[in-house]
Amino acid sequence: MLNGLDIEGDSLLHRMPVRGKLLTLFAAAIGLFIVADLRILVPALGLSAVLCLSTGIGLREAFRRVRFVLFTVLLVAIANYAFHSLHEALVVFSRLSALVLLAAAVTATTSISAFMDEITRLLTPLERFGFVRAADVSLAVGLVIRFVPEIFARYGEITDAHRARGLPVRPLTTLVPLIILTLKDADTIAMAIDARGFRRH
């Protein structure tokens, strides 16, 4: 498995409390989806990029972390251009890209355990009314943050292995081993959770 996604540093986001970062990210997401003016969205995108790089993550590493998501955002923008207009495509691209970079900045400055602890604290009042199990939700969020980059890394390893053997990289020949490896990792994690009695009442 990959090491933690957070990096050491002393930036503004590093010093900011986890709850403050999550609430700021939530508020920024709402604001970005309310606004449809490129005169606001484009500077917001630039500010998000600056904020992400200010964490000390580095341009290469930042691009490596968000490239797959940004590629998906680009596809969505192209679809909006095809079915709506260029303006709508630019709005969608600026909005989603800014949100992705903000999320990457928060992830780079917050450990997974800190995420899980804060989510557990935030959801504890709802648990008292029987709506959710705070520990289960925080575990799910932690696993997603931890597991998604690992899937992308596995995919990169599989495609590199294909190229090294002179084989063409095709969806069928890469997705099948990727699914098998992902399920194997998921099974290993599930056994580790059961062995530690995490979900035991």
Structural Rg:
19 Å
- The helix/strand class is mainly alpha
Q: How much beta, percentage-wise?
A: under 5%
Identify low-pLDDT runs. Answer: none
Main β sheet profile: none
Estimate nothing, just give the exact number of structural domains. 2
Mean pLDDT across every amino acid position: 77
Measured as a percent range, the helix fraction is over 70%
Number of helices: 8
Helix and strand sequence: HHHHHHHH
Distance between the termini: 28 Å
Shape category? globular
- Number of strand segments: 0
Outline the fold blueprint.
Elements: H1 12-15, H2 18-34, H3 38-53, H4 59-83, H5 86-108, H6 112-128, H7 134-164, H8 171-195
Q: How would you explain this protein's 3D organization?
A:
This protein folds into two domains: 12-110, no CATH class; 114-195, no CATH class. 79% of the residues lie in helices and 0% in strands. It has helices at 12-15, 18-34, 38-53, 59-83, 86-108, 112-128, 134-164, 171-195. The model has no long low-confidence stretch (mean pLDDT 77).
Give a short summary of the structure.
The chain is built from eight helices and no strands. It is an all-alpha fold and 201 residues long. It folds into two domains: 12-110, no CATH class; 114-195, no CATH class.
Characteristics:
201 residues; 8 helices; 0% strand; mainly alpha; 2 domains; globular
